[in-house]
Amino acid sequence: MSTLGVRIPKKSKKGKNKVEKRQLVTPSDFYEEATELEDNGERWLLSDVKKSLRFYLRALDMYDQGLHLAQGNDDKLVYDILYNRTRLMLQLYTEYMANDGHVNLLQYINLDDLPQVSMLRTLPLIIQDLEQVYSRYHSSLGIDTWDLQFNLLTSYLLLLESTDLFPLDGAGIVQLTEKFVTLSTSLIQYQFRELDVNSIIESKAAVPNTDTELLQTERNENTDEIVDISDQITLESVAEVTLNCLKFNETLMELLLENRDSIFNATQLSHLSTIVSKSNCELRDTLILKPELVNSDIEIALYQIECVELLAGGQVEQFESRVTETSDGISPELSLAQTDLLGLYLTCIPEDTQAQWRAATLLGKKLAEARAILTKERQKLQTQSASNSEEQRSLSYTVYRLCTVMLSAAENEQTRFQIKLRQGTSEQEPVMHTLQKNAATLRTNAATIAKASCGLQETMVDKLKRNYVYQQTSP
User: Fold this and answer.
1) Most confident of the ranges 209-223, 344-358, 396-410
2) Where are the domains of the chain?
3) What are phi and psi of 99, to 5 degrees?
4) Hey, which residues does 99 pair with through a beta bridge?
């Protein structure tokens, strides 16, 4: 399972059937063999992470051999192989090297008998590969690159979210932002055009004696692969691109707030602020005109952007009021988004112990609320999941999130302890003792929860993530 929120379209040979072991001769043979190996990797990912990785690495090798034979041949086949290879590299990064954005599952796998693991690439190198393929084929006749563009946008977003792992200076962030905005604008416009064409074809097909075959032929020029890929463009795929745009903007706004004096100069700050403001306005206008695109994820992303805008504008009271809102039935996702926003708020406060204490206290209350919501969800899943494998997987993911929240709460208690310590008065000692005790209890309870099995149907990936969060409980 890829990182939550990351969908990477896969390109397969049409009409491919399972065949007996065959001799690989042509580029197409290697391409088909690679896609079959990928299918095997997907099947084993949930139960045997290492075996799955072995299949994926063999698939990469098949793609490479197919590319070697295909050079100078059918451009469409070369593109398909290049697309699948870069897409698989990105998929392996999000599944193995940065699961959930930061968990490296490779550290839990004995790689001694997997020398091919050296084929895996870091995110900046994957982006280079994607950009090279896009530059080569984005204007080629008969080759539709919308899915490649989607993967490239996804990788740009991942890079902006990973500046702690792959540091970027102000100029690098400006360049990344300009590329993201240009590509995302082009892709969304293309997707809307395709949706309009599909709508026309469907409406004509509904009218008796209307010849839609000619329209379809003119559009696709006898390239059935384009029909296959274009059919994947739906309101859901447009919504995914829109969500990535909102996430990119929100992440950029956070970087501008947190690093305005350390990374960016005045010109870069002004330029990026203008870009993100314009992009937010355009995205909001799009969602007003296309309300059918709006889903719960987009609603939360819009909410986060609104809150960060308030914080950036110095409207602290309005920010606090908005971000501490709650209601019966609030979703875990919204509650977690609120904790992230309050965490951002805390990092943006200068050395003012009173303001920091207030922000940390608000964060502590919101983390307690998120913990209560996830605890209730965990208890519900525990009573329902005995015979339901899907709910057992949901249970494991809920446990992972619950333990992560508990660790964040423990860290926040330590932050509050440090704030009191800086005040340096003896009357603060009982409070400081309580805060340290709270932090220790939260870590102990998180370890207990993370250590408990989530059922026989829990996937190996989820078990490794649970092991990761268990290890984080040690002070």
Assistant:
1) 396-410
2) 1-167, 213-313
3) -65, 135
4) 103
